[in-house]
């Protein structure tokens, strides 16, 4: 009986039994970076990002005026596809904010569904349950007003996941943007 009590006490204290790996303490400060995003292939209503409606109507009119011949229609359809191809993807731009510091998200390329940034980085960040990374993206249009892509919040749980895994974590955000913005990529590393 006495041996059983000693054995059970040792197990309760973690002596002599299987011990779990000690928990790594969270670093005091971290570096957080927003490295990129994945934009949905179309707006929430199904329309293309930079589709121009004037050109297809113009080509259809030319085809009609040419007598609607099959050859002309094929050429017009091909021309429409070639002309519109560069206009189908957005030109993402915007900003990201963490701990009250806003960084611009520009220079990430145009006509892309996968923008990437190197300037959206914050140093000396203390993670807490209240830490949030806020991202605001628009489709920058030269010929009109900018169209919203989405505003999303990345909560501390995803930032801690990126820290623990030591990799870029693709955070799913489509539920915050009606599918217009699918993921944002975040990287978190301890500061020395």
Strand ordering within the main sheet? 4-1-8-7
Percent of residues in helices comes to 25-40%
Determine the mean pLDDT: 78
Tally of DSSP β-strands: 8
Percentage of β-strand residues: 25-35%
CATH superfamily of the largest domain: C2 domain
User: Which residue ranges are poorly predicted, with pLDDT under 50 across at least 5 consecutive positions?
Assistant: 3-17, 53-63, 70-84
* Overall tally of structural domains: 2
Please identify, by name, the CATH architecture of the largest domain.
Sandwich
Q: Please tally the helical runs, counting DSSP H or I stretches of 4 or more residues.
A: 4
Q: Indicate the CATH class of the largest domain.
A: Mainly Beta
Order of helices and strands: HEHHEEEEEHEE
Descriptive report:
InterPro entries: C2_domain_sf (IPR035892). The chain has four helices and eight strands; from the N terminus they run H-E-H-H-E-E-E-E-E-H-E-E. The chain has 192 residues and is of the alpha+beta class. It has two domains: 30-46 and 90-190, Immunoglobulin-like, CATH 2.60.40.150; 54-87, no CATH class. Strand 7 (169-172) and strand 8 (181-190) form a beta hairpin. The longest helix is centred in the middle third of the chain and has 15 residues, at 70-84. The model is unreliable at 3-17, 53-63 and 70-84 (pLDDT under 50).
